[in-house]
Specification:
Layout (H helix, E strand, L loop, with lengths): L2 E9 L4 H11 L4 E8 L3 E8 L2 H10 L3 E13 L4 H12 L3 E10 L3 E8 L2 H10 L7 H4 L3
Antiparallel strand pairs: 1-3, 1-4, 2-3, 4-6, 5-6
Helix pairs in contact: 1-2
Length: 143
């Protein structure tokens, strides 16, 4: 139950993020969640959308480099220690996290953490075996 994420390099200058989002909007692509990490000259825009192929095409059509990346969406209790308990399972399984970002769906109930693991398939199997709720893409996009 991996989720397809779009990663795109964006110049770190005024107007470039807006232009990327406008290109997506022009093609009817709705952004469900995103992360933007920056360096001095470029940022990496990471997106979860309902139609990754349309998002990739829209970004590439606007002159951006875009690629697909497999990530895992994990439900986390929205309380003190919720993430720590999930990370304990990650550590017990010996999984390596490259990066992660999160969003809350209903405050006080649960959050969703998007995690890029070194081995997404193994991560899904290990987490499910330990009772962690790995969110299916269709359910994630219904949040």
């Amino acid at each position: 139950m991996k989720v397809t994420q779009i990663s795109s390099f964006i110049e770190n200058r005024p107007g470039r993020l807006h232009a990327a989002c406008a290109a997506l909007a022009a093609k009817g692509v709705n952004i469900h969640t995103l992360s933007l990490a920056d360096t001095r000259e470029f940022g990496i825009l990471r997106l979860i959308v309902a139609d990754p192929a349309a998002a990739k095409a829209a970004l590439e059509g606007a002159g951006y480099i875009a690629k697909f990346t497999d990530v895992v969406a994990v439900e986390v209790p929205d309380d003190a220690g919720g993430l720590s308990r999930i990370l304990a399972h990650v550590d017990a399984a010996g999984l390596n996290i490259e990066y992660m970002y999160a969003f809350s769906t209903t405050v006080g109930e649960h959050a969703i953490v998007i995690i890029r693991f070194t081995d997404a398939d193994r991560a899904v199997a290990e987490l499910q075996q330990r009772g962690v709720n790995v969110i299916e893409p269709v359910k994630l996009l219904a949040q």
